[in-house]
Structures are given as structure tokens and as C-alpha cells.
Amino acid sequence: MSSISSVYMPKAILYGTNSFKQVGLETSKQGTNALIISDKVMENLGYVNECQNMCNKEEIRYSTYLGITSEPTDIFVDEALEVLKQNNCDVIIALGGGSCIDTAKAVAVLATNGGDISDFMGNIKMADKKAIPLIAIPTTAGTGSEATDVTVITNTRNDVKMMIKQPMFIPEVAIVDPKLILSSPKSITAATGVDALTHAIEAYISRRSHPFTDTLALSAIKLIFDNIEEVYKNGSNIEAREKMSLGALKAGIAFSNASVCLVHGMSRPIGAIFHVPHGVSNAMLLPAILEYSKPNCIDRLASIGRIIKPELSGSSNEEIANMVVHDIKKLCLNLNIPNMKEWGIEKQELDKVVGKMAKDAIASGSPGNNPRIPTEEEIIELYQICFDYKYERVTNK
Question: HEC profile for 164-210?
Fold first, then answer.
């Protein structure tokens, strides 16, 4: 008898060029007084003003919080929540990258369930009251947060990135407009693109994967692998940007329902302690961790290989799995992904905290979904390998 699987995603997903123009109409379906959560970058690009104008057309009142300056923290959540309460907002619009959307998710849940966001870590507290409606509008093709039931917030009191996964954190509406991603610089395009690829790969090799997530994950891998280098080199290619947006969206739904694995478990402590952006920390871990995990997921990696390179379908599973790891190393090299040393992390600083990092990684639960489940000692060793990992080892094939 087969096991029962479940799938959660936003009630509505608007996708395609110019879908952003629907934000006013979609907001009017959810409330009359919006809190726009975004950042100064989006304001400088004019997107916040566009959003405000579209709210005006629908006679929606709005307040704005633009205090997000880094990966999302409990401080941002508390500040934005205070703005919401002071202005009696009944709907939230999140406009920006994963930091803006994850902050908005936390605010939406706390507004109706109360408490501190840290109360929800490890599901100690469950959100049992419906969150304030959230409309999530991503401006990067990476996190997939617009379609997931996950928020990742740094607890600034103990330097722990809290990965919180509960159904109430799913946005009510996702609006995915590839035109908003055209402004992403090369470094962000690379980091968020590899982040999305990591979501898709981990969703597929996860011990919690199932047929529905497999279909989305493989499709996402194909879209991302075929287009990521093009958007890195030519950011104005709207067709390639559209495919990357779709890939990131599919990857988000896939990992939200299948869960992520060891890369994400080890990535969060890097971000919390060394303030490395999430996409970058995922990217600097992915090749080495796939090498580590490969013996326990050769068949799955081979399936990925047959999707991205159909001409190799006649090769053995082991040969194709090796090719996938090789091609991901080569991709990271071509996208100029830095290792920890190149990012500026000092080896002696890593050595001081690597034990805590390994413990925090295991405590997140994600390593337990990995095909090869690591010990704490193995995670410490993997951090050491990734510190000065050399993508140059890739040979031309």
C-alpha cells in the first residue's frame, strides 16, 4: 500500500510578464488597508511606488515598511509588525527577494497568533489561527518563498537561523512577474539561481520526496540548468528570465512539500554566524555535499542527468551521476561562486564555531532528509572541505 502524501501551495498563483500590474486588484480581494513590506533597493528601482499607485487605483490604503537591509531577522519582524498594528492593516504585500517575503510571512502569522517568532521554532508553538492574507511578489528567481510554507528568520539573540515550516506561513497569493527580475545584478542572479537549483535537487533526492514533487523538481532542474548561465551573461534576456522564474517557482513548491536536505541544514549556520546571503551559502556547499551524498542517490542523480543531457541516456547510472556532480562544479565555476575563504571568512573564526554550526545544522532537521545522513563529525569535516573548495578541479568534458 502506498503512503499518503500532501501538497500545499498558495490559493492563487499569477505568473507571467506584467502580472505585477494585478497587485492592486488582488489586494482588493483580500483587504482594504495594506502593509507593503519591501526594502530601499525596490524603492530606488521604482517598484514600491508602482505598487502604491496600483493600490491607489483600487482605493486601498497602505503603509510601508522598508527596513529590511539583510537576511531576515527577528528585529525586522518586530519592527514591521509594529507598523502593521499601528495602522490596523488587514492585508500584507511582500515585494522583494526572500528576505522581504520571509519577513512578511512571519508578520502575517504573528499578527493573528501572537507571541515571538522564536516561539514557532521546532513547532513548539503551532499557528492555529489563519494568518493575515499575504500577497508575495518575488524580485529574484531563487528562493521560491512566494510559494512555500517555510520562513527562515535569524534569531539575533543566539545567532541561529530559525527554519520554521507550518501551513499558515503559505502566502495567499503569489505574483511572479519576470520583468521584476531584470534588475537583478549578476552576483544576485548567480546566487539566487543556484539557490533555486539546490531547492529542486534537494527536493528530488530528499527522503520525503513523492511523485508530485518529483515532477516539479525535475522540470525545475531542466529550466534552471538550461537558462542560468544565459541570464548571468545576458540579464536582459526576458525569455530566459521567464524560464528561470518558472523554474524557481516550481522548485519552491517542490521543496516546500518534499523538504530540503543537508545543503540547507549546513547553509543556515553560515548565514547566521558569518552573514553570508542564503543563496551564496547554498551555492558554496552544493558541489561538495553532492559528492558526499552521491553513493546513496546514484539512481536519482542519474535521473537528473538524463533530464539535463538526454544524449547520455545510454550511459550507466553511475557514469551519469558522476557527470551531474561534474557539471554542477563547472556551473559554479562559470558563475564565479566563491568558497568560504574567498568570501572573506577567516579559517580561525570558522574553527571557533564549527562545532556549534554542526550542532545547529543537525538541530534544523534538514540533514535527516538527506540520502546519506551525516554524523556531527562528518558535518564538521564537510565544512572544512567547503572552506577552500576548488571548483578548478573540474576538467572540460
Answer: EECHHHCCCEEEECHHHHCCCCHHHHHHHHHHHHHHHHHHHHCCCCC
Predicted local confidence at residue 163, as pLDDT: 87
DSSP state of 307: H
Same domain, residue pair 168 and 217: no
Q: At 232, list the grid cell.
A: 548571468
Let me know how long the chain is.
397
The three grid cell numbers given for residue 228, joined into one nine-digit string: 542560468
Opening angle at CA 348, ends 331 and 287, nearest 5: 15
Contact 191, 139 (CB under 8 A): no
CA distance 48 to 37: 9
Query: What is the tally of structural domains in the chain?
Result: 2
pLDDT tens digit sequence for 289-319? 999 999 999 999 999 999 998 888 789 999 9
Residue 62 shares a structural domain with residue 142: yes
What are the tens digits of pLDDT across the range 364-396?
899 999 999 999 999 999 999 999 998 766 655
The three cell numbers of residue 199 are: 531547492
Cell triple for 148: 512555500
pLDDT < 50: residue spans in the chain: 1
Cα distance between residue 76 and residue 156, in whole Å = 11
Q: Does 132 share its domain with 243?
A: no
Is 4 a domain residue?
Answer: no
> Helices (DSSP H) in 234-309: which residue ranges?
238-258, 262-274, 278-293, 298-308
Q: pTM for the complete prediction?
A: 0.91
